DNA sequence: TTCGGCAACGGAAACGCTTCCGAAACGACC
DNA sequence: GGTCGTTTCGGAAGCGTTTCCGTTGCCGAA
């Protein structure tokens, strides 16, 4: 049976149903202008012949592509993958296909915006945690498709994200509340992102929190590193070598925090007895390593972005900036400072 | 300049290059029968106009889609994401677009193979770490496209993977070499995969290693759990409650190992002084947590699969089963048993 | 009876490419 | 110089839909 499904096209269906192709097309697409009886007949014949439209021909002749491009700077890092997972789930539920574009590093990035490989291939593009510069926005613009963003900072496009400064404050306030006053910060930046962007709300939170608590800033307690756990380990080593080491460390991400912890453990320090460490994100391993952190709903951000896109595609209005809440998760890596 | 790029098609390119569409098409597709000079001119013009072929038209007219579907059971777990990352990188370098299909859970899985959403949309499908059953193979078959696999076990399709049993042996042999004789195993299975598959080489390795070492099997030392770190933690608790607890734990994955370690630490046990733990995979956090493990090159498997696919698509012959080597990575979670 | 209007439907022109087939150009070789 | 084989290239026929315009038939109103 299945093998006989050779090459039936709409013309065959139309003929078998005794109508013109125009009518067949309208019936199949549930457009109006077709008598109910006729529609049913066409549908029945189509089913009988197990006919499916050719997406290419359909698109060529004027329909949508039914595809959306997703641009991500990283795939194998949990945060990005989780975002993607959320997005994909709602898009595919809506029968949209997801075209994945991994833009890795500055060169690839340039190439992407230059060649616009997704051009003419999709109905929309969503940029995941991917700050786009001015010029890049212009380039994207000439694809002439809907654009939305997720997981990054606010953008000129409809977008969903968290408030980094709030998240940072939740972490810092927790440390402060426990009584810490010598708090270090390991700030992380993504070397793949152009410098122009990243006004780091997570850093601002640190400064603001100290100021509000009346604690003078000690520049030697903040270290900035490229993203990554190893970097976190190095940063911690640096911090440990300060004349007056901190009693707590605020890391911009859980991975960095984990790196810091490794250094601490190797140095024979106990956590949280000797030193408290807090991260941000609530990476799955945070739970496995008893790391106190600030959770952000990652998959949900992806899903939200997906729904947003769907309504835009349907021509509905949507919010422009949606911000999802973060939440302090207290686990075993933080405690009051030692007497 | 760029904004005038509204609707350029191959006819425009041909005209601008002073050739016919036939020639333009041949040049763009790197077919032969075109003078080198001509080809270069066409390519230059195309670049200049930032032209990209319409996949629909191309496909409709008989060419291929330039797209490949990637089917994954999970996205946000490191292993799968890394595989995907490797694959995507080589595919995109070859100017192939990647259509991502996340098949999540048994229901979704059924739906996927039933509806075959990728049908008529791609030139090939690669299944990532995704054992496919007999019936599913049949369904896939009637898509009539190339199929390859990566990151799973051997398959009826060309595929790349590691030897799970070898990997397991490397882990076990390390423990044995250190002098451990009471070794526990925490076996992990993926609840999303049908039971029929998964003949777990990682488990076989455990039994074989013990046998070869002349150590009698103690059933109470093996616990099987669903995949996931929390499960690992529970399993470890169970192991700890045994009358004669193990001196070392062999976990099927790093995540599971991490879960086990959390339980150990919470119980006040030190690693590796009181107990050794070894995992498999070399998840990035393994390095951050000083976990001894057996590394498998994940991204590389994805890349390999990609190259394999490319040559098949080019009509070349390739190996059917390629197996990549694994390697013991000794870090701080294993040591000789206490006295 | 005639006519305007409307719903249902058909003809045929795109849509943007690939590819078959034949023409032209160019050497090489007798 | 003529013949033949290669290359290189152009004309044009599809590929399977959608959609713009018409046409037809029918009903109610004038």
Automatic annotation (TrEMBL), chains A, B:
Keyword Kinase: no
Residue intervals passing through the bilayer: none
Protein name: Transcriptional regulator, LacI family protein
A GO term for molecular function: DNA-binding transcription factor activity
Record-linked Pfam families: LacI, Peripla_BP_3
Organism domain of life: Bacteria
Residues covered by the HTH lacI-type domain: 8-62
Originating organism: Streptomyces bingchenggensis (strain BCW-1)
SMART domains: HTH_LACI
Keywords: DNA-binding, Transcription, Transcription regulation
Claim: Transcription is one of the keywords in the record: yes
SUPFAM superfamilies: lambda repressor-like DNA-binding domains (SSF47413), Periplasmic binding protein-like I (SSF53822)
């Amino acid at each position: 049976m299945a093998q006989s499904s050779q090459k039936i096209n709409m013309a065959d269906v139309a003929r078998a149903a005794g109508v013109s192709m125009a009518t067949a097309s309208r019936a199949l697409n549930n457009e109006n202008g077709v008598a109910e009886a006729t529609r049913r007949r066409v549908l029945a014949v189509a089913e009988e012949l197990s006919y499916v439209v050719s997406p290419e021909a359909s698109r060529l002749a004027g329909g949508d592509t039914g595809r959306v491009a997703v641009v991500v700077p990283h795939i194998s890092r949990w945060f990005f993958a989780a975002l993607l997972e959320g997005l994909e789930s709602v898009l595919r539920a809506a029968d949209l296909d997801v075209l994945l574009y991994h833009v890795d590093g500055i060169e690839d990035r340039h190439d992407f915006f230059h060649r616009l490989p997704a051009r003419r291939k999709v109905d929309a593009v969503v940029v995941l945690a991917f700050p786009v510069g001015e010029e890049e926005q212009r380039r994207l613009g000439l694809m002439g498709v809907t654009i939305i963003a997720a997981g990054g900072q606010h953008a000129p496009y409809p977008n969903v994200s968290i408030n980094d400064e709030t998240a940072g404050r939740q972490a810092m306030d927790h440390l402060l509340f426990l009584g810490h006053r010598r708090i270090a910060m390991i700030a992380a930046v993504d070397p793949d992102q152009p410098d122009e962007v990243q006004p780091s709300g997570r850093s601002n939170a640190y400064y603001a929190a100290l100021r509000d608590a009346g604690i003078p800033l000690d520049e030697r307690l903040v270290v900035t590193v490229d993203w990554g756990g190893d970097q976190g380990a190095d940063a911690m080593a640096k911090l440990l070598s300060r004349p007056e080491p901190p009693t707590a460390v605020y890391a911009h991400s859980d991975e960095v925090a984990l790196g810091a912890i490794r250094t601490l453990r190797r140095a024979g320090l106990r956590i949280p007895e000797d030193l408290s460490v807090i991260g941000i994100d609530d990476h799955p391993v945070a739970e496995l390593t008893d790391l106190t952190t600030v959770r952000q709903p990652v998959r949900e951000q992806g899903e939200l972005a997906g729904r947003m896109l769907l309504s835009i595609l349907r021509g509905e209005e949507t919010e422009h900036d949606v911000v999802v809440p973060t939440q302090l998760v207290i686990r075993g890596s933080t405690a009051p400072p030692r007497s």
